[in-house]
Design a protein that fits this description.
heterodimer; A: mainly beta; six-stranded mixed sheet; 0% helix; B: mainly beta; seven-stranded mixed sheet; four-stranded antiparallel sheet; 11 strands; globular
């Protein structure tokens, strides 16, 4: 079984600054996928970024990037030029190779301050 | 294109009542799943299906039943509601294969009194 740990229950950042959210996971699988999901107050689950474990290159999506360290089983999310709309819960998730299940961390509540 | 549609959005039940949460997707996805989200926690997998007629248990299946008679629909049944099942329930679908992200519905907030 997989476990996902997000050690920062809450974080805050000033608008336009950069913030990094931490995530570690544990698994015995070699092929898997990692995701960051955003959940605003509207409750929707919105995919932010994904990373294939077999790829060494870190994924980027506009202002969002990850630092994937496979040996350390670490998958942090960096948000650059933070915007007020980034205020939300952020969940790190482990996806198995078969694609039939996700294991989520407990979440980090991010507040972007004006 | 509606994506993943969950009904109802809110529901209040009394202990012991039964209920079915509906989930439908119009993306022709093979995989569908149900998760629950308790306050201050991440989502936990209840049941999942990799195709019509195929279902399996996730991390927290007790007290819930599922069936998948069509590709589009994946209802979740609460057999005898208990206060511990008060939660927000999310349905998700994906085309299959691990690299494909799951698409989530907007959730159903369920309260059991």
């Amino acid at each position: 079984a997989q476990t996902v740990t997000q050690s920062q229950p809450e974080m805050s950042v000033q608008e336009a600054e950069t913030v990094t959210l931490s995530c570690t996971y544990d698994t015995s699988e070699n092929n898997y996928y990692l995701f960051w999901y955003k959940q605003p107050p509207s409750r929707q689950m919105i995919l932010v970024i994904r990373q294939e474990a077999y790829k060494q290159q870190n994924a980027t999506e506009n202002r969002f990037s990850v630092n994937f360290q496979k040996a350390a089983k670490s998958f942090s999310l960096k948000i650059s030029d933070s915007q007020l709309g980034d205020t939300a819960m952020y969940f790190c998730a482990f996806g198995n190779n078969a694609g039939n299940m996700l294991t989520f961390g407990g979440g980090t509540r991010l507040m972007v301050k004006p | 294109n509606a994506g993943v549609t969950q009904t109802p959005k809110f529901q209040v039940l009394k202990t012991g009542q039964s209920m079915t949460l509906q989930c439908a997707q119009d993306m022709n996805h093979e995989y569908m799943s149900w998760y629950r989200q308790d306050p201050g926690m991440g989502l936990r997998l209840i049941h999942y299906s990799v195709g019509a007629g195929i279902t399996d248990q996730g991390e927290v299946p007790n007290g819930y039943n599922v069936s998948r008679s069509t590709t589009e629909d994946f209802p979740l049944r609460l057999l005898s509601a208990a206060p511990s099942q008060t939660s927000v329930y999310f349905c998700a679908s994906s085309p299959g294969q691990g690299r494909q992200p799951q698409h989530f519905g907007d959730g159903t907030r369920l309260s059991i009194l």
